[in-house]
Amino acid sequence: MLVKCRICKNKIERNEAYKVVVKNKNQYYCNAEEYSDWNKENESRMKVIDFAFEVLGETTNTSLMKELQGIAKIHTYKKMINYLESDVENIVNAMDKHFEKEYAKIRYFTAIIKNSIGDFRDKIEETDEEFMVELDIVEEVKYTPTKKKSFSDLIDEY
Ligand SMILES: [Zn+2]
């Protein structure tokens, strides 16, 4: 029997799916890893919203959620909360001005995130081996000595 993954909507064999029981109902996911990543991202999402409410005041304005979701699609909520928490002071200072409308305030807040998150690098987690390996390769390439071309090499090329 096939069941549907609640995250990616893939159809999977029930006995191969990762099962979670919530309020006596079975929920199915492709695997434990997808479920745990999704939970972490959800947690980060709640933290981002809390942060936004701290800065903007609580709001039901749907443009806030839309803007945040748009940023998360590219950068993930995990990166967003890491960025926000690392830059609290600057953000609070930048937001310390008068806004005529709540919408303007929301746009200003999300523009700050958009402008900064691209350059923001998550601090390296020691457990993140995959990332470390990637970093090693980058370093290696960076420090490969490049042979300086001599005059005679240039002559040969032309
Ligand atoms: Zn899935």
UniProtKB/TrEMBL annotation:
<protein>
    <submittedName>
        <fullName>Uncharacterized protein</fullName>
    </submittedName>
</protein>
